[in-house]
Amino acid sequence: MKKPALRGLCAALLCAVLAGCAPADQPLFTPSPSGAPAQGQGETAEASAQPEQPFSLTLCLGDQAPKSLDPNLSAGLDSHSYLLHLYEGLYRYDEEGKVRPGVALDSQVSQDGLTWTIRLREDACWTDGRPVRAEDFVDSLRRLADPETGALYGYDMALYFENGEAVALGELPPEALGVTALSDTELELRLSQPCAFLEEVLAHPCLVPLREDQPLDGSCTCGPYRLKEMDEDALVLERNPSYTGEASALAEELRFVFGREAAMVGLSSGQVDFVLERQAAEDAEGVVNASCPRTGSRVLVFQQQGPLGDEALRRALYLTVDQEKAAQSLADGSLAAKALVGPGVLAPDGTDFYSEGGAYILGSAQERRAQAEALLAQARLPEEPLRLLVYGDEKILRLATGIAEDWQAALKVEVQLETPGFMAFFDEYFAGNFDVALWSSVPDFASPLLLLQDFETDGYANCLGFSNAAFDGLVEQARPLGMASLEGRQAMHQAEELLLEESAVCPLTHYATLYAKREALQGETILHSGLVLFGGARPPWPGRRPRKGKGPARRLRAIVRGAAFPDAFRRPEKKGAKRPAVPPSRAAFPPPRGKGRKAPFFNAEGALRDCAAARRVV
Question: What DSSP string runs through 99-168?
């Protein structure tokens, strides 16, 4: 059976166009030196104290309301971030990005690593007071894996469990999946193979428990927050009084407004606290920009047959690629890659995988190009243009065009760009109809294994004819050990080096999570997968009270339409005061500072200095 690889990569790419793995104590990032104290275990009483005044936060993670709050059917960073506040799975993320027990009380793992027996907390309950039962997890996992559900992550997640692939393909009924409720508070999971990062897999928002007797619209949940209201303007969550777990819920209310451009206006005026995937003008008052490394890489993959069966030619193409130029071309905060696995993926002892292994792409672009030109004497140049298969938006096409032009200028190799539609791209890729392809690996979990195992002989993304017994053996050796073991990390480093030495894959850039926020906001958590948590976030100023009604979200949208202006954001001086019936004219106030200016992006050095995988600013 194929390994549990990134078979949902098509889904991940689709989510990116439309809009991480560790043991329980493994951090997915290290807080910024300027970050606020973590609020997890061992914090001081002063740091963990609830603010005397209740407060709310207004946040923006996406442009539209989620199509569904059904955890099994959700997709995208915004929807998954909402669900992490509404539900609690067997495991959860704390404010430091570490995986902690959620509904799980403890677990026992068999000697072969294939059977997990998990006891549940007896005090875990739903918003209607009913206890969370093991059968709720069984129902959720079976429904997720059932192909009739049509879950975007169904196939991916099913692969971790016994009979998962057969269930996901409809060859076996959902009841055959390796999950069993031994009692109301005891759950058995049987795996298809050992998984060193299973606890993080079980923290994924699509694996939370579900109730068959309740609608799957967020009205009955078990997390630190519950749904208050949702319309086309905003999703509003309020603290869940029935929650008995350890996750923080400092804000009395989280108001997620939709529409990033409108939210950026509110950010400048102080009425919005956080906007994901946007950057403010550098002189915007009271606003800071941040950029955090995210698990995932853009790479070029080279066919091992046909014209690129010539090793010297393949290596020359590899050496000619300029990663710094690629990152600048994208202009989206991406980091220039020096290895397949980027910075910020940490072992339990805090060791950064990238720093431990070092860079594999060495020397300047000019030095590497000189090496490539020297290889031309040994290479057999292709008689026909090389086919470079690409799918993406304008910036991706710009990136691919720049690479093709560099190959033409330095090596006299002609390249033909092939840009089919979304599904046609994957049809061509998996059929191997390309010489070179621009491929993206965007795992949900921060494990180097998820990037490496794609290129095993039977790996998901290995449609290039790459087969190396030593590489396969190293990946197999590392799989049960994971990041917690030095031996496991060394095996992954060796596998990474071998893959790049064979010029099967050429790293281009590493993904990054960009956001803008009020300068005084502190305590938000950006996970290495790009998901965002606000349970530990603190108010931007003392005594900020919850906002009532739907006004802020509606006024945000009105500003974009030109029907109202920033004066509409001003708080009434007295409780119960009303806004002016007639909005002031545009001449009554200046536009936001820096309007129309290009937002600055952080370079790799700045991003690594500011955060390993997340940014928490005091």
Answer: EEESSEEEEEE-TTS-EEEEEEPTT-B-TTSPBP-HHHHHHHHHHHH-GGG--TTHHHHHTTBTTHHHHH
User: Which helix (H) or strand (E) covers residue 316, if one does?
Assistant: helix 311-320
pLDDT over threshold 80, residue 435 = yes
Question: Average pLDDT in the 290-316 region?
Answer: 93
Contact 411, 372 (CB under 8 A): yes
What is d(CA 337, CA 324) in angstroms, rounded to the nearest whole number? Answer: 8
Helices (H), 378-444: 394-411, 422-430
547 has a pLDDT exceeding 60: no
Gap between the Cα atoms of 502 and 542, Å rounded:
57
The pLDDT of residue 541 is 52
User: In angstroms, rounded to a whole number, what is the distance separating the alpha carbons of residues 470 and 458?
Assistant: 14
pLDDT in tens, 255-279: 999 999 999 999 998 999 999 998 8
Backbone phi, then psi, for 69, in 5-degree steps?
-105, 20
pLDDT at 52: 54
Strand 104-109 relative to strand 99-101, pairing: unpaired
Burial of 548 (0-12, 13-18, 19+ CB in 10 A): exposed
CA dihedral sign of residues 526, 532, 533, 536: positive
H or E element in which residue 379 lies: none
Separation of alpha carbons 482 and 143, rounded Å: 29
Task: Kindly report, residue by residue over 388-406, the tens digit of the pLDDT.
Answer: 999 988 999 999 999 999 9
Q: Residue 467 burial (CB < 10 Å; 0-12/13-18/19+)? A: middle
Helix axes 394-411, 323-330, angle to 10 degrees: 150
In this predicted model, what pLDDT tens digit does every residue of 224-256 receive, in sequence order? Answer: 999 999 999 999 999 999 999 999 999 999 999
> Which pair of structure tokens corresponds to residue 58?
């207004």
- Work out the angle at residue 63's Cα, subtended by the Cα atoms of residues 552 and 537, and round it to the nearest 5 degrees: 60
What element of type H or E holds 84?
Answer: helix 77-86
Q: The whole model's pTM is what? A: 0.78
CA pair distance 506, 19, nearest whole angstrom? 27
Q: Say if residues 113 and 191 touch (Cβ distance below 8 Å).
A: yes
Q: What gap in Å lies between CA 579 and CA 581, rounded to an integer?
A: 6
Instruction: Give the count of alpha carbons within 13 A of 519, CB side only.
Output: 9
